[in-house]
Amino acid sequence: MIPLVVVGCGGHGREVLTIARAVNAAAGRQRWQLLGFLDDRPAEENLKRVQRLDVPYLGGLDWLRDAPADTHHVIGIGDPRVRRAVGQRLDRYATPAASLVHPAATIGPDTEHGPGFVAFAGARVTTNVTIGRHVHLNQNATVGHDSTLADYVSVNPLAAVSGDCQLAEGVLIGTTAAVLQGLRVGRDSTVGAGACVVRDVPEGVVVKGVPAR
Length: 213
Ligand SMILES: CC(C)(COP(=O)(O)OP(=O)(O)OC[C@H]1O[C@@H](n2cnc3c(N)ncnc32)[C@H](O)[C@@H]1OP(=O)(O)O)[C@@H](O)C(=O)NCCC(=O)NCCS
Description:
alpha/beta, UDP N-Acetylglucosamine Acyltransferase, domain 1, 6-stranded parallel sheet, 213 residues, 7-stranded parallel sheet, 2 domains
């Protein structure tokens, strides 16, 4: 059993916990020992929700500073830039980041991913895809062949990243959006829900609509 804490008591974090549980159920053993949640400022309502999942709230992020060296963490925060800020802080504690792939996700051959990768149920990655650290593919998100997703990218539910795409660090692809083949989305840019990206997106912008502007 590998000790695991989920960072973030919000909805995304609690969903990430359910992925760890699904991994355990599929393995038929407790691969991940779910120690609890960390959050510096948990909302009262979320503490109640955590309690209903039968997993303790352990405290703030500094809890990891004194944790045993084999305690893994996974960042359960959906916003890529908040996840990056937390990830950079947790790097100081040198505890390893866990990757969680839901048993109902498919990750194809010739694909690599960094630590902290989370694939929700129904996420699909085909082949020759390079995925960085702390990338999250939400439910039913798809990533086509030969694409690169840099650190801290989030692909939200039902979004489709076509083949040969390059998503730079911190990019958010909103729910049901599409990125057409061969395109690049620049660092820290956001593609709005339902958008269709038909040309390269520069750094640090929000685009939305069909075609995305
Ligand atoms: C595009 C987005 C980033 C814009 O956020 P924002 O800057 O806070 O925008 P606002 O809500 O202030 O809306 C600004 C305008 O854009 C419009 N708008 C917002 N999101 C839009 C979208 N996805 N597509 C088209 N128009 C959109 C609003 O209607 C509003 O139009 P108006 O000025 O004519 O009234 C956000 O709406 C979005 O789509 N985020 C992704 C959400 C997502 O994936 N959620 C799933 C979580 S699992």
